[in-house]
Amino acid sequence: MIQRVLKQAKETLKDLNKNKWHYLYTGILIQLIFGVAGSFILRRIFGFVLLMTGQDNLNNTNIVQILLNPMGFISLIVYLILLVVLLFLEYQVFCLMILGASNQKKIAWKELFHPTYLKLNKQNIFNGLYFLVYVILGIPIANLGLSTTLTNELYIPDFITGEWSKSPISAVLLFVGGLTLIYLAFRFLFVVPLFTLTDLNFPQIYKRSWQMTKGKLIEFFLSFTLIEFVLLIILLPVFLLSLVVALILDNNGGNLFLESLLLTLINGCIFATNLFVKIGIFHLLIQNMQSFSNNLPLQNVQKKRKFASLALLFMVFASFYLSETYQLATLEYNPKIEIVGHRGYVAKAVENSVEGLRAAKNMKANYVELDLLYTKDHQFVVIHDNDLKRLAGLDKKVSDLPANKVIGLKIKQDGHTSKIVSMKDYLKIAKQLQMHLILELKPTGNEDSSYVIRFVNELKKSGMENQVKIMSLDLPTILAVEKLDPDLDTGYVIPIQFGKLPNEPVDFYAIEDFSYRPQLAEDVHQMNKKLFVWTINSPDKIRYYLQTPIDGLITDELKTTNQTKNELGHDKSYIDRLLDLVQPLQ
């Protein structure tokens, strides 16, 4: 097996070196066609879907309404069909490009769409779903290079995996589920090459891919990893050499144009590496294909149009250079961002505990976010899960118990212990600490008509109404709070969001990292509202968001956030900004 891995990797790397300029040129074309033009078309169709259904956006609350609208449903079907076609076309271009280069031929661009149309025309909607399943299965192994231009930013949102990982049982299920998806993704590696190079239908393709990968998962994984490792080794000296040259020519990092050139070169190397990793993987797959159709849109290589190729490369380089110059010139630390301790400071205490509140205060958080549930006898307690199993070890629900059966319950998490407290006691301690709070109302569906009134009255009794913000995932609940007392600072929590944010009568929005786009911050500020983003925990993302126009960052990692703020707070040279902008390899 090791000999086969080394042999296949050697042949693949040899082909990458031999056809590197052809692959780079074609890869840039693919990026422009599918990444720019394809994205533009999909955005316009998505906008048409929203227009037909009278919606401003697509989120977790209105998806059913959009699907039940006949025009919305039809428009979404058209959107999905076009998405499938574009995804397939990109994969097919890669396969044909590699196959052509191996046989001293090239893609017949003018003839590419006709055979693709004929193949897709033979399929039905269920076969389209087969292909979407393939794309979804590829998400867990996208970092190996199998994502497309249109799906390279697709991933499972952190708030889903994060919440599941907090319970031992669900963490095991998440781990097993992840391994299962990875296993299936590897078993269906040959779906695209088989569809491109054979006349099989999708059920036959899945069956054939399953047969071709039997007993070879480790071999394929080692081959992919070896190719990626070699390409990274090639990239590293280029990166270090570029950095050293820049430091020699501009030792104080103050030359904007030189540092922009360096950033362009670095990101160009990263793009090329990602491209060659993807091509290398497809090359390995095609090597293992035993039979394929000869009726492919390939033609003999003619005299290369060097001027056109050089002109394209120059225009792309110039565009990237201007873009990087703008980013370096405008990238700045935003000191006005308010730091919110998510459920307190969970590194030092149980979530939503008084100890976590005190720990967050010691870490100089601007706010502490906490969760409020409603007991059977109409009292508010501070806890996130309605099910007491995860923290208290009880197979009971908060909403089914009276307050005296919930308050004082011992809770444990990551070696820390505490007790569940009432909203009243929590607010009292927060007031003593002069700690501002963000209260998240979490209705379970069992609340009575006095739910909102009781909450507002309890809040006003505490004297903390001017030191807190109130938010909820449930829009009717937060709108009821806003209507009852417009002076309260209210916010709407949105976990999944596509399109514009709704202009609701609230004071701020809290969106999940997965849904954030820079345009959203501008849109929210034009509404004279604020934007908070949750839950930001990785060092790279903390650093990124501290240099955006958002108003609040909700995080579990208060120590890392403080350290990053201190680093960014000093006067930054362009070389510092450059290092912030260099993205990790995907």
From TrEMBL:
Keyword terms, alphabetized: Membrane, Transmembrane, Transmembrane helix
| All residue ranges annotated as the GP-PDE domain in the record | 337-565
SUPFAM superfamilies reported in the protein's UniProt record: PLC-like phosphodiesterases
Q: In the UniProt record, does the keyword Coiled coil occur?
A: no
Which example biological process does GO assign this protein?
Answer: lipid metabolic process
Residue ranges spanning the membrane: these are: 21-46, 66-89, 129-151, 171-196, 217-249, 261-286, 307-323
Pfam families in UniProt:
GDPD, GPDPase_memb
Domain of life (superkingdom): Bacteria
Q: GO molecular function, one example?
A: phosphoric diester hydrolase activity
- Put simply, this protein is called GP-PDE domain-containing protein
